[in-house]
Amino acid sequence: MKRSLKVATAAAAAALGCAGLGVLAVPATAATPAPSAKAAACDRAPWEGAVQGTPKSFSAGDRGGDYLWHDTHGFRLRVTHGKNHDQRTYSGVITASSAMRLDPVKLERGDVVKLSANRRSLVFVFANHGYVDGVNFHTDCATRLEVSRLHVGNSNLSASQVYLGAKRAHPKAVPFAVHRKPGVHA
């Protein structure tokens, strides 16, 4: 295992451990339980415009970074980089104001997605080789989502390497928060 993957995995574990939270590891083939009807309806409801919609023509080997968007099926987080297929390790923490559910996508050996015991924090470590790694996650009736501790290898991921929604907007800084669209309530 490369040094950056070891460091990222340790940092991810520490991110949850420092908060005194237990960790629920989710294998690449496992999905979390089905939501209630109310939670599923909340999950489909829109969030602020910056994160809405699938990035246009997103594919493996696209500009390197983290891609985050929301659509009627929940949130999507994907990572990719260049076409040279070297390994780059992307990691971070996503925290929601209510419990989350997740569905891993295209995970490979060495990729990790974990939920805290209260299911409000998701930690990810993706050993990316220029293809696509990611996770689909559902915030159900959450009103706020915070994205923090984003890294590529041993370096902080800059806001210019984070792409939000259909327009690939960049947050002002990392960490950043997104909110459910005003007027949409649980």
Key terms for this structure?
37% strand; seven-stranded antiparallel β-sheet; 2 helices; 12% helix; mainly beta; globular; 186 residues; disordered N terminus; five-stranded mixed β-sheet
Task: Provide a compact summary of the structure.
With 186 residues, the protein is mainly beta. It contains two helices and twelve strands.
Could you characterize the architecture of this molecule?
The chain is built from two helices and twelve strands; from the N terminus they run αβαβββββββββββ. It is globular, with a radius of gyration of 15 Å. By secondary structure, it is mainly β. Strands 1, 4, 6, 7, 9, 10 and 12 form a seven-stranded antiparallel sheet that branches. The chain has a five-stranded mixed sheet with strand order 5-8-3-2-11. The protein has one domain.
Tally the beta strands. Answer: 12
Calculate Rg over CA atoms.
15 Å
Order of helices and strands: HEHEEEEEEEEEEE
In whole angstroms, the N-to-C terminal distance is: 43 Å
Could you give the topology of this structure?
Blueprint: H1 3-17, E1 23-25, H2 37-44, E2 65-71, E3 74-80, E4 88-96, E5 101-105, E6 112-116, E7 121-128, E8 133-138, E9 144-152, E10 155-156, E11 162-164, E12 176-179
Parallel strand pairs: 2-11
Antiparallel strand pairs: 1-6, 2-3, 3-8, 4-7, 4-9, 5-8, 6-7, 9-10, 9-12
